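Supplementary Note 3. Input sequence used for the single-chain structure prediction.
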Amino acid sequence: MPENLFPGDTHTVVLNSVIYKIFGTGRYHGDPSHYGHIWNYKLYISSSEHPRKQLLAAQPNFDDTFIQILKAGDFDGDGRLDLFIETSRKYSISRPTLYLSRFATPTQIIAPYAAQSSTGC
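The predicted structure, written as discrete structure tokens, is reproduced below.
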């Protein structure tokens, strides 16, 4: 799985015959190869069971970092996709967030379950 899904990128994961699409939206303001030039970024997920897109993370801009998908799999043992995502927008802050399908409402695919924020330089 790619770590970064830039605006316009899509990654497909198939787990137990369910097709999940994870994709990024946003716009570039300047050099598209630099994180600091991505504005209004949003990371979404949809699935063949829930075709409506669900917002996972959003940032207005970035400071030398980017949202990263750290791990994907079935972490809670329910047979559905779970994600571990770095959701920080600033290089000196780390905020890994665990999204679990077990805690999703009927209108969600996965739900944020836990996050750990730390700062430093």
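Strands lie at 10-15, 18-28, 38-47, 54-59, 68-73, 82-86, 93-94, 96-100, 111-115, 118-119. The chain has no helices and ten strands.
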